[in-house]
Design brief:
about 65% helix, about 220 residues
Length: about 220
Amino acid sequence: QLRLTVQRWLSGCGYKDCCASCRINEMKLCKNLYDFPQRFISNHLSIDISLNFDDGDFSAWEFEASRWARVLFLAITEEHPLEPILMFIQKIGSNIFKHNHDSTYVGVKLLILVSSLVLELRRTRERVIECGNKARTHIGSSFLGVVDEWSFIDDISKKLVDTFMYFLEDLVQFANHSCSIFWSGAVEEDTALPGAVKGKLGGPSQRRLPISATTAVLQAV
């Protein structure tokens, strides 16, 4: 019931012939949802600034993207398709190595965004399976376009697969490049580690390893 209430609130009055104010609010919401991926992934830092990030940054980005995906799947209808968002993801994914100084930053944020979409779609599918026909019955005729419709869920799933397959090769290459420091092989004692790795394994906190032990741990991994 809470989900249905939120859907109705996001959609204004929820009727086909709704008031102008509801339509305006709906358009603003859709615009914000469509614009989020660009705002989320865009890097506004100076090119001279090191783009290091740690677990705290990662958790904050993950929370932000998950919240966006949750609202997106609450508000989206057949009238407001996912194509603009999928086209943006496809464009960024296929050009991930062309973002010179901030390729890692962009790649990580893209993966977070994509993961949030996939996880939320999975939750939606599981919810429909659990509720069965009851879920669609409770939505009512005024909400026939929401993602709880099986046909709509399958359509979104297919579009996501097509989008990800388009840049899968680039994504695998990016993952291999990003994780190369963990490959087996000789590791020099003076290996230059990324800031995110140093922040995780080394530092003043007693819960972290001393910097001198960082290389040994990586070699063991």
